[in-house]
Each structure stands twice: as structure tokens, then as C-alpha cells.
């Protein structure tokens, strides 16, 4: 009770997490993903692009102790948002747990494969991983290389961003569609 009365129970990172998350959501809603690169404009397609942007920040922060707590809180916010979205789609309490576990496995599996490709500088492996995850329904997805180029560009841009800016709630992603492989 005293914590609430005196504001001691509030999360000091809440405003920063909210600011970063809203910028990540805005970056993931760039029309190029859905119109030019043909990511399905469905709940699962939007999950793929949003989780890709969350991954990019996680990957940037992995060797920066100052960012670890903030990124964990941001990842928690991402999963709260996914849970909320599933509930808005009409999925009941009994189905939420199972779906959330599946989506968490998907997210962390993607983070591992995307991270390995980025660390190896293997753009082709990144494009293959993106195609496998984003468009499993398509044998050939022309947008895979454009999206991979975007991920590489975003990764480089995030590496250049000072941790103090990120800790202040400022993050910058590139404009999608300006890569060397637009389609």
C-alpha cells in the first residue's frame, strides 16, 4: 500500500519501454513490408515483422549490460501485446496458454537463426531463414532478399545507436524499401 501511495512500486522504465515499443510497432507497420515485399497482412504476418524488430533490438543489446534489463522489459511488453492481440481475435483463456508457448518458441527460434546469419554476415542464410518463417507457403518468395537487406541495414543502424539514446527511449529504424533488393 505504501509503495503505491508514494509511487515506489512504479516501474521507472515504463515510460521508456512504452516509447521504444511504440517506435518498434511504427517501424513494423511500414507499408513496404506488406505491399512490396508481400509479407502477409495477417495477424501472423504482422507478428513476424513486429517480432523481427524486437529481435533486432535484442540482438543489439546482447553484449551491452546497461540495456539488458530494459530489453527484457521490452520483450515482456511484446509478449503482453501478443497475448492481448490473441484475446482480441477471440481466443479464450484455454487456448491462450498453448498459443503463447508456440509463439514464444517461434520467436526465440527465429531470433537464433536470424542472429546466427547476421553474426556470420551471411545475407543468403538470412534471406532463406526469413523466407522459411515469413512465407512458408511459398517455394519462391521475391521479397526475401529485400527484407534481408532491410534487416542487415537495421542491424547496422542499431549498432551505431548509442546505448544512452536507447535508454532514453529513442530508437531509429531505416525506411523500408530503399534497399538494394526492393523485390
TrEMBL record:
<dbReference type="InterPro" id="IPR014569">
    <property type="entry name" value="Ubq_cyt-c_CBP3-rel"/>
</dbReference>
<dbReference type="Pfam" id="PF03981">
    <property type="entry name" value="Ubiq_cyt_C_chap"/>
</dbReference>
<dbReference type="InterPro" id="IPR021150">
    <property type="entry name" value="Ubiq_cyt_c_chap"/>
</dbReference>
<comment type="similarity">
    <text>Belongs to the UPF0174 family.</text>
</comment>
<dbReference type="InterPro" id="IPR007129">
    <property type="entry name" value="Ubiqinol_cyt_c_chaperone_CPB3"/>
</dbReference>
<comment type="similarity">
    <text>Belongs to the CBP3 family.</text>
</comment>
<feature type="domain" description="Ubiquinol-cytochrome c chaperone">
    <location>
        <begin position="37"/>
        <end position="173"/>
    </location>
</feature>
<protein>
    <submittedName>
        <fullName>Ubiquinol-cytochrome C chaperone</fullName>
    </submittedName>
</protein>
